[in-house]
Amino acid sequence: MKLLPRRNAETTADVVTDVVEPATVVGKGRATPKRRDSAVQRGPVSAPKTRKEAYARQKQVKAAKGARQTATKMTAQQRREALRAGDPAFLPRRDQGPTRKLARDYVDSHRMFSNYLLVLFPLMVVSYLVPAVQFLVLFVFFALLVEWYLTGRRVHRLAVERNGSAQGSALSIGFYAGSRAYLLRRWRLPAPQKALGDTI
After folding, report:
1. Can you give the pTM of this predicted structure?
2. Which CA distances in Å does 127 have to 121, 124, 138, 182, 197?
3. Residue 36, SS3 per DSSP
4. Pick from 148, 167, 156: which is nearest to 94 by CA?
5. Could you give the count of Cα atoms lying within 13 Å of 119 in the half-sphere of its Cβ?
6. For residue 48, cis peptide bond before it (omega within 30 degrees of 0)
7. Residues 161, 163, 164: CA angle, nearest 5 degrees
8. Residues 189, 83: contact at Cβ < 8 Å?
9. Which of 31, 118, 124, 126 is 20 to 30 A away from residue 88, measured at CA?
């Protein structure tokens, strides 16, 4: 039986030290934030200073709650009629605000090239069959985009003159106006409150 040569004690200790050395655990490197620091900070709410202010605030809260309850009790037909009438409590978010109201009145009181967009849809169908018509369709869409942008600039300027500020950029207002302009008047919601040629 052959015996292995005896190793040096220092070499063995080095090997053991290299193998047995525990791996260090790496933490996240920062302390866990406290709840008061990570929670969303709410703005200061000022308490009413007089009894008159308290009654006014209570009246506003009650009116808002009553409008929500009324909206839930109404039928779909009643909500649609309120929307057609332009009641601000029933308008979708995209239709709310004085700038959007001004854009609707501008579209309803002006004749635009976009009013005939639905008539041009058959031209789009023909363009799939006749490649030469595709250039005409592209030109029409480019003209529509230019008209929407110019309309948005006009409405934006009017809103700044009348209200001091405008809700959105000229491009977003123009797209909103264009999406209303190509619909027939009887399809528009809220219903038009201005006739063609009326001043706004």
Report:
1. 0.59
2. 10, 5, 10, 20, 35
3. helix
4. 167
5. 6
6. no
7. 70
8. yes
9. 118
Calculate ∠ Cα 5-9-13, nearest 5°.
120
Sign of CA dihedral 118, 123, 127, 131: negative
| Beta carbons of 138 and 78 less than 8 angstroms apart | no
Q: How far apart are the first and last CA of the chain?
A: 113
Read off the pLDDT of residues 90-105 as tens digits, 9 standing for 90 and up: 788 889 899 999 999 9
Locate the domains of the chain by residue range.
Answer: 53-85, 93-187
Instruction: For residues 93 and 70, give the distance between their C-alpha atoms in angstroms, rounded to a whole number.
Output: 18
176 Cβ contact partners less than 8 Å away, ≥ 6 residues apart: 94, 100, 103, 152, 168
Specify the amino acid at residue 61: V
Distance (Å, whole) CA 173 – CA 156 = 7
CA 59 vs CA 55, 66, 73, 83: distances in Å: 6, 10, 21, 24
Could you give the C-alpha distances from 155 to 146, 148, 149, 188, in angstroms and in order? 14, 10, 10, 19
